[in-house]
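B., you asked whether I could sanity-check this one before it goes into the benchmark set. Here's the sequence:
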Amino acid sequence: MTLSPYWLRDNCPCTDCRDLRTGQKLFQITDLPGDLTVRTSAEADGVLAVEWSDGHASRYPLDFLAGDQDGPGDDGRTEQGRPLWAAADFAAGLPAADWADYLADPAEILRAVRKFGFALLRDVPVVEQQVLTVARTFGYVRETNYGELFDVRVEADPNNLAFTNVAIAPHTDNPYRDPVPTLQLLHCLRNEAEGGDSGLVDGFRAAALLRTESPADFAVLTGTPVPFVFRDRGTELRADRPLIEVDALGRIREVRFNNRSIGTLRVSDPDAFYAAYRRFAEITLRPELQLEFRLGPGDCLIFDNTRLLHARTAFEQDGARHLQGCYADLDSLASTLAVLERRAAALDSIAELFAGEGAGEYLGEAVTMAEHMLQSGALAEAAGAPDHLVAAALLHDIGHFGGSGLELMAGQDNRHSHTGADWLARWFGPEVTEPIRLHVAAKRYLCAVEPSYLALLSEASVFTLQVQGGPMTDQEAAAFAALPGAADAVTVRRWDDEAKVADAATPGFDHFRPLLARLLG
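And here's what the prediction gave me:
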């Protein structure tokens, strides 16, 4: 395995190099010696151990090193990996969900916005300012000179053609703003007017077609800054950007297209620009690219304002058509989606343990490990315990997985309470992990302070008590009782002791999944 020494050292995961809580680096690249070399390296047990010429030591998981560190990055903002669509691709229906279903599981809709550039929510409450509530389910509202939200309807004194009844050609919003709002939301409150239908065009698809059909025109539009300007009595905005923006690798990253907002362009070859501009505009108007639909009351459209062009047909001047809109940003949507997917992956990992190793014997008891833990969680839930204690009861013995329970029965303390708490700490806070960390100590504590408690323990639990250190001394018991999570640990311990009933009817892991999802960090 040949790796750059500086790349390798820059990615050292040790706690001297990275903050344990944030994962952020604790050193500057200039802190490393200019002649840095690897002194020794060795692979064992899935880890590469490296000793450096300056005496530092690093350990790298091999699966991390196997990643493609030289590959092009993808922050999800370019054409890479995105299906560039035409209207016919949605003949079976738009990517959509009912409001209630979205609130229960927003990931699918957020994924659609990332993938296709848009998604539609239906049955959103038809009340003023509800569009702000929608935006805040995944991020933050971007306030502009139009305010937190704007009303798309016929205004008596409009400062933008959007606030009239005229047809609006495919365009992106606010190209004169830096940075441009990357997401737009439009929530329909009324639409009884003749006309006023909505349309979307995949701007990345249109730009890709221009690149294929006329590379020279594509080069002109990606290389010519265009002055986008907006002025009214209280605002003066300008941003000079190309109509099509590409990243350092030439991938389409952003489209800014709004004929209403282009200022006076002064370039050496205006004929070349206008020929390319016209060709691109003609592509955006191709019928096969225009996805047309009608928003009804309760519909809320979420779309990527750096990728999609949106449009509307003209409608009658006095028609009852009222949308409310707001702006938000892709980074917050992407963050929310990444966290949701990370949490889902965490719960999948835990579920796999329950379904796999959980089916195995539980330390000489009449139940499996999974049955024991599910019973414990069910007892906590039946007692009306708060979510964090139900979770602690459910997950308290997860440290036994991986075969360590056999070590305990062989007379070797596997410290499963600490192992489980440390493993779960990547996802759950101390209100969940500390009762788990202390639940073995709680058994030792109860044996010391409650003379009748020992008689309640099963034969296997009495055996493991001795392996784990036996009843606490008075001094140990006093120290335990003073710990912040001690009371919760004792509560979890009592459910632990009761949860050993053979063939008891208990809910499966999926029953507890929503509760765990609420607690995930």
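One thing to flag: The domain at 356-519 is CATH 1.10.3210.10 (Hypothetical protein af1432). Otherwise nothing jumped out at me.
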